[in-house]
Automatic annotation (TrEMBL):
MF GO annotations: metal ion binding; nucleic acid binding; poly(A)-specific ribonuclease activity
HAMAP family: PAN2
Pfam families named among the record's database cross-references: PAN2_N, RNase_T, UCH_1
Biological role stated in the UniProt entry: Catalytic subunit of the poly(A)-nuclease (PAN) deadenylation complex, one of two cytoplasmic mRNA deadenylases involved in mRNA turnover. PAN specifically shortens poly(A) tails of RNA and the activity is stimulated by poly(A)-binding protein PAB1. PAN deadenylation is followed by rapid degradation of the shortened mRNA tails by the CCR4-NOT complex. Deadenylated mRNAs are then degraded by two alternative mechanisms, namely exosome-mediated 3'-5' exonucleolytic degradation, or deadenlyation-dependent mRNA decaping and subsequent 5'-3' exonucleolytic degradation by XRN1.
Domain characteristics, as noted in the entry: The linker, or PAN3 interaction domain (PID), between the WD40 repeats and the pseudo-UCH domain mediates interaction with PAN3.
Catalytic activity: Exonucleolytic cleavage of poly(A) to 5'-AMP
Alphabetical list of InterPro entries matching this protein: PAN2 (IPR030843), PAN2-PAN3_catalytic_subunit (IPR050785), PAN2_N (IPR048841), PAN2_UCH_dom (IPR028881), Papain-like_cys_pep_sf (IPR038765), Ribonucl_H (IPR013520), RNaseH-like_sf (IPR012337), RNaseH_sf (IPR036397)
Name under which the protein is recorded: PAN2-PAN3 deadenylation complex catalytic subunit PAN2
Record's subunit section: Forms a heterotrimer with an asymmetric homodimer of the regulatory subunit PAN3 to form the poly(A)-nuclease (PAN) deadenylation complex.
UniProt keywords, alphabetically: Cytoplasm, Exonuclease, Hydrolase, Metal-binding, mRNA processing, Nuclease, WD repeat
Predominant place of localization: cytoplasm
CDD domains associated with the record: PAN2_exo
Swiss-Prot/TrEMBL cofactor(s): a divalent metal cation
Organism: Crepidotus variabilis
Length: 1048
């Protein structure tokens, strides 16, 4: 088996052709079967990973199956209809059925050595049932309703509705004797799950908040021998299902109702957790784990059973070739009798068989093809043009998808032979996909400067959704967009997740970096959050896409989503006039993004029968290219011809005319005057096939730097001609392995102003190279495919008005209390806001320290030689930041001490290193000053803009996680002050404070105020040593003492 689980083909849980959600699941211990209890009260067997339908039978009633358990030669089940508990053979024949006087809540498992099982009755009793006869042997009174029962090797463990777990003697059902503890309060409300593994008990249940039940975010752990509580397992998503992993007594599978799965070792905290997210749009209803832990099964409310496999091949569910799959126990048909008047009645007997029937086909010879492969995915060309009317989606079938019907689509041919006659054009090195390699020092040790020797910064790639780097770079070098984004962060934007705010912060960082690599981590996180909010899952990067992902289509979908989102976020009437228009009322001025990119025109729709016409207006921010069939009149059209065709192509459709009441043909013609064309055209190139790409392979004669365009009014060309200039291109690069990535080719304005020989630059993530104009505009090679094109209107370049935009942050941001904590404790407020006469100026000293929490575990790959390769580093998030006055009468007094509110799921609070505990970042429970992350970022941004000098210890990593660039001349890092380059070892803050200041810090946990104040005092000590001329001598003593401490 491999080290991690991978999703495989799901199984639809259907009955009689209709999908039904499974309410309980159980893997067979001796056969290759997954048993599922459906919502209709039926138990169904699914054979093998292909989900071949096996026997099925009902448990009684029409409600769902409450619980089922598959053993060596039986299947136990009980339904929500409270008809009782039954036992069936695997072929479906009932062995016995128990109908007690009180309803059954649940029943326990049945270990191989046991002769009975325990049931919980609604009458506050435990009943013990014989496995052979199904009779009730004994009933014992209990103190509360038991919702969970588990039989271990030595005890019966129960979980009750009042949150207690109890240990019972399996022989009597009474509480465990012998002086040992037999109960513990695990959860405030009812237990929802109970698992026993070795000497450990794991429970999940309901908590309580303001008198209402909520899922308890902790998985509780107890020692079965002493009932002593062990450290719980945090799971902030809310655990709904738990399963102990077989043969790994301390490992647990925890799953939330939304499909987040965590495989965690409860004892070994250093073991790496495994996280998975199921691809489901509904909630989970049941789960199960196979006997050898090679398979996980999860059922959702949509009638799909999701499978995750650890097996390297199509291995059986039980891990070995066990008993053959059972066939349904059906009565044999009666033999045909030639009935006559003289036929004696005793000739009609009961049939029997003394040999195995041919229909009992062995499982090894059954077809491996799944009976249901699921519906085909909707092509992206259709999704991109889809419209909605009364919750019904419709779209025109593109020409490239039309063809003969009822014909199977041939699968792509596998890589065949390679011949010397083949012309293989290699991808130039600077266009190839670049990956960040991680050393033992992490990403900080990677030499980004080797890949970029220009003054223009690149963006890193180890972040989810970093495929958007190319679009960030394109918008950064469009001057009006850059000014709008920078002005937007100076406003009081109330959105928690705002793409325009994050773009503004990223643009400021790229400006300040001047060639140093940056990362758009906050922007990428916001893309994921907003895309999930509107169910735009096609633009979300899950980090596991293979060669089949078409990043050209992905970035085009994101391009449309981005411009539409930016237009909404910045739309705050009355909007400023960025581009002059004939709009009379200030309230009717569109958003600045619409003024720059909006294609505002009219559609003239004309009926072909009665010639009646009507007009409607439309506004779109992106233009999708259309490609006509080649004609003899114009065999080699230029880009300007295709652009006009895409803008003004008549659209023909059929509908019912409101005038003549006939179902007839309508012709729709777009009408846009030349002067109404926008200052910028944002174009999705939309190359979906080789025919479309063939237009672009015409060399410099196809796409030139200057593109003339004429508008059309009522189908007639406008005599005025508008000239657009190509400003940037997003291209898809396809390597030899057919994996694609995106690059941006940009005409940089700063390079134009500096009079460079070629202002065109290639931005391949963190690789930045200067290229020629010919290389930028030519797409003759098969590996270079355009995806997005930006054109700038030349004649209105100087008419765009940006003078009214405000670019500076409000200084009062440092003197306002913006805490969102409802229950803040005044005694825990350790900072004092700045007065008006304390506002920072260039050169003001401030001391800073930050604490972080873990949002995503590190993704690693273990190789066969035992070495480890980091595929994606852990994702951290700012949890607390403290900024202290660096000088003056209040030197060392904090003026910022903010805990950061986040709505994302926190994987690990890292309390030992951060001092942050569960609830500290929750507005309801936090007792500290809790501030939105965007506001904290603005505070830090203001301090950087003011020219403050930041003092701290290890600030480069802190600023990197915060995602802010601080110029090196504004940073004084004590880790660099107290450092000898020849020693190659940097000293910790705790050791420096102990030796230099003679104090002990970080004894229990880290405190950001304490750490920032210690760094400030170390800097003051450094200045004193320099004034005395003894710093070098003191530094040697520190290193000497450090070696002695390490050797001890």
């Amino acid at each position: 088996m491999s080290g991690s689980y991978q999703p495989i083909q799901p199984i639809p849980s259907a009955l009689n052709g209709f999908a039904q959600p499974a309410t309980t699941l159980s893997f067979d211990s001796v056969s290759d079967i997954l048993w599922a209890g459906l919502n209709s009260g039926t138990i169904v067997a699914y054979i093998g990973t292909q989900g071949i339908r096996g026997p099925s039978f009902r448990v009684g009633g029409d409600l769902g199956v409450k619980r089922l358990l598959a053993g060596d030669n039986y299947v136990h089940g009980a339904g929500n209809s409270n008809e009782g508990l039954g036992s069936w053979t695997k072929g479906g024949v009932n062995k016995w059925f128990l109908r007690p006087s009180a309803d059954i809540l649940t029943f326990s498992n049945a270990p191989p050595s046991s002769t009975g099982l325990a049931v919980s009755l609604i009458s506050l009793e435990i009943g013990f049932v014989s496995l052979m006869t199904g009779t009730m042997i004994r009933q014992v009174q209990t103190s509360s309703l038991l919702t969970q029962l588990e039989l271990s090797h030595s005890a019966l463990i129960s979980g009750s509705s009042d949150g207690y777990i109890r240990i019972h003697d399996p022989r009597t059902g009474m509480a465990r004797s012998g002086g040992a503890e037999n109960l513990a309060k695990a959860h405030p409300r009812s237990l929802q799950g109970l698992q026993v593994a070795g000497n450990l008990i794991f429970t999940i249940g309901m908590g309580e908040r303001q008198g209402r039940p909520i899922p308890d975010p902790l998985v509780k752990t107890y020692d079965i021998r002493t009932m002593r509580a062990l450290p719980p397992i945090p799971f902030s998503a809310g655990p709904s299902f738990i399963h102990a992993v077989p043969k790994r007594s301390s490992t647990l599978v925890v799953a939330s109702a939304e499909g987040l799965i965590n495989v965690v070792d409860a004892i070994n905290s250093s073991a790496m957790n495994e996280f998975y997210q199921l691809d489901t749009s509904s909630y989970l209803t049941a789960s199960a784990i196979s006997p050898n832990a090679a398979y996980l099964a999860f059922a959702d409310s949509g009638g799909i059973i999701h499978l995750m496999s650890q097996a390297e091949s199509d291995a059986p569910f039980n891990g070995f070739e066990g008993q053959p799959a059972p066939m349904a126990d059906l009565p044999a048909p009666m033999p045909r009798v030639d009935w006559k008047d003289s036929t004696p009645l005793n000739t009609i007997g009961m049939p029997y068989f003394d040999s195995q029937l041919l229909s009992a086909w062995p499982a090894t010879k059954q077809s491996k093809v799944a009976s249901y492969t699921g519906p085909q995915r909707i092509p992206p060309q259709i999704l991109s043009s889809m419209k909605y009317n009364d919750q019904v989606a419709y779209a025109t079938l593109p020409k490239e998808l039309r063809g003969r019907r009822n014909m199977s689509v041939p699968a792509p041919r596998k890589g065949g032979a390679r011949f010397r006659s083949d012309k293989v054009i290699p991808v130039p090195k600077m266009y190839r996909k670049v990956e960040i390699e991680y050393s033992k020092f992490g990403v900080e040790d990677f030499d980004f400067g080797f890949y970029n020797k220009t003054d223009f910064s690149g963006l890193e790639t180890h972040i989810l959704n970093s495929y958007t780097n190319s679009m960030v770079q394109v918008l950064h070098y469009i001057s009006p967009v850059r000014h709008l984004a920078k002005a937007h962060i100076a406003t009081d934007c109330s959105r928690e997740h705002c793409l325009l705010c994050e773009l503004g912060f990223t643009f400021r960082m790229l400006e300040d970096a001047r060639g140093t690599n940056c990362q758009a981590s906050n922007f990428c996180r916001t893309v994921r959050v907003l895309a999930q909010a509107v169910n735009a899952i096609e633009i979300i990067d899950y980090g596991r896409e293979g060669p089949e992902v078409n990043y050209a289509q992905k970035i085009q979908a994101f391009h449309r989503f981005l411009l539409d989102s930016l237009s909404v976020e910045i739309n705050n009437p009355p909007n400023p006039t960025i581009f002059p228009s004939d709009v009379s009322s200030s309230a009717s001025i569109p958003s600045p993004i619409s003024q720059l990119f909006g294609i505002d025109g009219h559609n003239i729709i004309k009926c072909s029968h009665c010639k009646a016409s009507r007009e409607n207006s439309y506004l779109t921010h992106t233009l999708d290219m259309l490609y006509p069939l080649r004609s003899s009149d114009n065999p080699s059209p230029k880009f300007s011809d295709l652009l006009s065709y895409s803008l003004f192509r008549p659209n023909i459709h059929k509908a019912t005319c409101q005038h003549c009441r006939r179902f007839t043909t309508f012709t729709s013609i777009r009408s846009i005057a030349s002067e109404k064309l926008p200052p910028y055209l944002a174009i999705n190139v939309s190359i979906h096939n080789d025919d479309a790409f063939s237009f672009w392979r015409g060399g410099t004669s196809f796409l030139s730097s200057q593109i003339p365009v004429k508008g059309q009014v009522n189908g007639i060309d406008d005599p005025e001609e508008i000239v657009y200039e190509v400003r940037s291109i997003v291209g898809k690069i396809v390597g030899k392995d057919q994996k694609s990535h995106l690059v941006a080719i940009i005409k940089v304005p700063q390079a134009e102003e500096a009079g460079a020989s070629s202002p065109w630059y290639l931005f391949n993530d963190f690789v930045v190279r200067n290229i020629s104009a010919e290389e930028a505009l030519v797409f003759q090679a098969q590996w270079k495919i355009p995806a997005i094109l930006y054109l700038e209107r030349v004649d209105v370049r100087d008419q765009i008005q940006l003078d009214t935009l405000r670019n500076s942050l409000d200084s009062t941001i440092l003197s306002r209390d913006a805490s969102v904590s409802i229950n803040r404790d005044p005694a825990l407020i350790k900072h004092q806001l700045l007065n008006s006469d304390e506002m920072p100026t260039p050169g003001t000293l401030v001391s800073i320290d930050a604490e972080f929490v873990l949002m995503q575990q590190e993704e690693t790959e273990f190789r066969s030689d035992g070495t480890k390769k980091v595929l994606r580093p852990a994702r951290m998030s700012l949890a607390r930041v403290s900024v202290l006055r660096g000088s003056g009468p209040h030197g060392g007094l904090p003026f910022i001490d903010d805990h950061i509110h986040t709505s994302e799921i926190i994987v690990d609070y890292l309390t030992e290193f951060s001092g942050i505990r569960f609830g500290d970042l929750d507005p309801i429970h936090s007792r500290y000053t809790l501030t939105p992350s965007k506001l904290v970022y603005k505070k830090l941004r203001y301090l950087v803009d003011c020219g403050c000098i930041f003092i701290g210890h290890g600030l480069s990593k802190d600023f990197r996680i915060i995602n802010i660039f601080v110029p090196p001349e504004q940073v004084i890092d004590t880790v660099d002050l107290y450092f000898i380059k020849s020693r190659q070892r940097r000293l910790s803050l705790r050791f420096l404070v102990w030796y230099v200041l003679g104090e002990h810090i970080q004894t229990d946990t880290h405190d950001s105020i304490e750490d920032a104040r210690s760094a400030l005092r170390l800097y003051n000590a450094y200045q004193q040593f320099e004034e005395q001329g003894v710093f070098d001598q003191k530094l040697e003593e520190i290193y000497r003492e450090g070696r002695q401490v390490v050797s001890l």
